[in-house]
Amino acid sequence: MATDAGNAAVTTLDFLGSGWQLKNATQTINYTNASLDLANNVIYADVVDSLGSTSHLGLFTIGASSGSTTLPSGLLNGQSADLSTTLSKLTLTTDAATRIATLAGSTGLVSFLQSIDFGTMAVSAKVTAVPEPSTYAL
């Protein structure tokens, strides 16, 4: 997770090891290591399919969000924070739509794929600061 030190707003939230798969009779697309870039309103993931692998591909543009993305100023002093936000009006980026259309064998689908509202994603995360170990523990 990255933060903007000036206002402690969360700028990215990474879900390392997370993933999902889209599959039909002839194609499989694996998405892993999803990442929310709240500063630029984009959801990224690593992609593996028959075209190869791409790290940090922009998948969805976030059209709207609601909820908290601000960390308390004391988080770095061992406090915890609960982040809860709802992302909505999710549409495919040009790169994601082009990749899916290429896999489907019809690059003419790009505009159609980008016109689809993929709905809403609710994100809840508990962030706990880990204090530095004491010198006696070393």
Describe the structure in your own words.
By secondary structure, the protein is mainly beta. It has two helices and nine strands. It has helices at residues 94-104, 110-115; strands at residues 2-4, 9-23, 28-37, 42-49, 52-61, 64-67, 80-88, 91-92, 121-128. A hairpin with a 2-residue loop joins strand 4 and strand 5 (52-61). The chain starts with a strand and ends in a 10-residue tail after the last strand.
Q: H/E series, N to C?
A: EEEEEEEEHHE
- Give the end-to-end Cα distance, rounded to a whole number of Å: 26 Å
Placed side by side, the strands forming the largest sheet appear as 1-2-3-4-5-8
Determine the strand fraction and express it as a percent band: over 45%
Q: What count of helical segments does DSSP give?
A: 2
Number of strands: 9
Helix content: 10-25%
Mean pLDDT: 82
- The radius of gyration is 18 Å
**What profile does the largest beta sheet have?**
6 strands, antiparallel
Q: Outline of this structure?
A:
This protein has helices spanning 94-104, 110-115, and strands at 2-4, 9-23, 28-37, 42-49, 52-61, 64-67, 80-88, 91-92, 121-128.
Task: Give the tags.
138 residues, mainly beta, six-stranded antiparallel beta sheet
